[in-house]
Amino acid sequence: MARRLFLFALLLLPGSALAQREGLLQIGSPLSDLIRRQATLGTVPQATADALPIPAGEATALLDSIAADPVALAALSPADRQLVERYRSREPASAFGWTPPYGFYGDGVSPVHVEGDGYALELAPIIGASIGPTQRTDRGERDPTAPVYQNTRGFRTAGRLGRLYFEARATENQRRPAVYAYYEAGDTAPRYGFVKDIGDDAYDYFTAEGGVGYRDRFVDVRFARDRNQWGPGAGTLFLSNYAAPYDHLHLGATAGPLRYTMAVARFTTPERDGRGADTVLPSKFAAFHRVSVEFGRFEAEAFEAVVFHDDTLRGNRRGPEIGYLNPVIFYRAVESELGSGDNALIGLGGAVRPVDGVRLYGQVLIDEFVADRFFEDSWVNKWGILAGAHVVDLGLPGLEVRAEYARLRPYLYGHRSTFSAYVHYDDVLGHPVGPNADDLSLFLRYRPTVRATAQVLAARSRRGRDSDSLFVGADPRVSYFERASNASPTFDGVRQTEWLVEGSLAYEVLPRLVVEAAGLYQAVDDAERGLDRAAAVTFGLRWELPFQSVRY
Fold this sequence. Notes:
Number of domains: 1
Protein name: Capsule assembly Wzi family protein
Number of strands: 26
CATH architecture: Beta Barrel
Strand content: 35-45%
CATH class: Mainly Beta
Signal peptide: 1-19
Keywords: Signal
């Protein structure tokens, strides 16, 4: 009887997606990260890992291809070989060496998994529970604070019917972060959409994510509310997973070495303008294209995006622009013929594996530029560059190292108004460091066994921020018509240097149930406000939730 009550209670508990067999992989989940490591090792196509998320069915098909190659399988670290075995296994909790009662963990991965001829269903709780002490300063003065905490409860369900697949995640959350940030006018916080301030530097929020899609050998079509990440790095100039989830229609196609991805999305601008809480927030729309081709150890990618909105000042009510729905069109040409003045961006990127286990990559994004002023500090030179290296299992099996540098010119991602900026809620859709800045990041992850993981992120960012009276292109939500000058050197404005160090030690006690100790240190040295620091250590558990960085 006690066992039955325990199992019933587990079904009522909350969840997200780590390593699953059905549905859509959550970015940062163990299976998603495993695929990214395999792209660097050369056991799966590079392009597969560069347009996330991917369906779980595609991921497990890739693992099947690895398992069918004895040489590739033998080259993996012991932990990765066990992960491949776990996700391909149909044995009850096979990776943990025990047989749970009543069919619980019957597939070795999900708490509840039902499978038949052409269909499958997964059910899992989502839990994120952590608490710990913190210390911080405000304008150099010590700020008395209560403990930081995260309280997440919810559920996840996923499955397939023939070639159709679906994924749904819902959570109720209360959170008190070490570094509090809340935009009262828009009722939002960094990386989240709508949140409610509940006092004591904490907020409450509800999340609902997921989608339904169709996948066959060549095509993947889905409608979802989720995040996306396009590019080979932890950071990307194109489309990152930093902003809150958003509604979008996704089209993916793969043919040999060619991979094409398109998305049409609706974003939110949290500008209530004193109209009260029960008003529909302004929407804007965007369309994205990405195409990549892989030849040998090289991959090349091209990207374009356009952001458009209802221009009520001139009486233009548009909604989704039909011209941008064409999957084989150049947005800039459509924009010019419409006479719209929408916000268009283009980018190029590339990656190379000089040896298996090492991947070098880079991106260039151009928002706007004038050729004869390209080498000047002109405000119209709105571009960004990113370069990185990813090293896996070289010298020490289970060790993963990534280093990245990004530089973003002033006014990048910004436009004529906040309604056409490359922003969702108050978060940039591209690189999280934002414009008028640069960033140097180092990522370390070590997985000595299939259950234990240690990881650290260290980053140094420099930026020129806007002051109360001077706009220098650091905030993409502000119209570039408000610029202080036509001359805009990078780091112009109030200089800031930020240091961020975060990491965790995690141990998986059951499939996708992790106990964890995590730490965070953040210091911001501002030329006007002085040095402020925040530090926190938390202890807790995660079930069906990946580790959540404050930035990536």
